[in-house]
Amino acid sequence: MTGQKTGTFIVIEGSDGSGKGTQFALIGDRLKERGYDVATYDFPQYDQESSYFVREYLNGNYGGADELGAYTPSLFFALDRFQASQSIKKDLAAGKIVLSNRFIGANLAHQGQKIHDDKERTKYYDWLYDLEFNILGIPKPDLNIVLLVPAEIAQKLVDQKAARNYTDKKRDIHEADLNHLQRAVAAYEKLCEQFPDTFQPIEGTMNEALLPIPEVTERIWEKITQRL
């Protein structure tokens, strides 16, 4: 059991290159400006030992993205979230807004898209929910905002990122695989259809062009204020 929460747990989700980091920072700043007590988290926690297996996996040291299937990599990411779970619980119990850049939705999309059969994918979702929220006792987000950007555009944005401390490559094994990114975007769309109360989409493009960053921020803010 995760225990009673008094705060609100909000996650910014989306595929690689969708603008999550930018919107995460902007929304965090706005919440603080409006007087909310905010605690922020960024996953995976690349600077923590808990992300060791995540870093090894994304660097391709265990093979390609599909070689381990969906379940084994999900353990890597889940344990990294478990490492932060006690801190998140304390923040929620204190009535804070917890804002996270990625959470379980990233596993559901990036790993779940490896399972092509709908029934088998749903079994994976059930397994992951049980693992994280029941067995590990990780807090469950109240709202997941999902930024949707076509994979072809997102992959180009990935190449504009600054160097990351978990890899010396321009793209990790997820980012380098356009098919993976395309399937992940589709998986995020399905999550929003399957779980509309907790996964809500925000389109990041119009007519194959990126929307202005402030416009996306306003769309996210409208969703969030409905939960506060």
What does this structure look like?
It is a single chain. The protein is of the alpha/beta class and 228 residues long. It has one domain: 3-Layer(aba) Sandwich (Rossmann fold), CATH 3.40.50.300. Helix content is 47%, strand content 14%. The protein has 8 helices and 7 strands. A 5-stranded parallel β-sheet has the order 2-3-1-4-5, sandwiched between helices. A two-stranded antiparallel sheet has the order 6-7. Helix 1 crosses helix 8, helix 3 crosses helix 5 and helix 6 crosses helix 7. The longest helix is centred in the middle third of the chain and has 23 residues. The mean pLDDT is 89.
Topology:
Blueprint (H helix, E strand, L loop, with lengths): L7 E7 L5 H14 L4 E5 L9 H7 L12 H23 L3 E5 L2 H7 L7 H18 L7 E6 L2 H8 L19 H17 L4 E5 L1 E2 L2 E2 L2 H13 L3
Parallel strand pairs: 1-3, 1-4, 2-3, 4-5
Antiparallel strand pairs: 6-7
Helix pairs in contact: 1-8, 2-3, 3-5, 4-7, 6-7
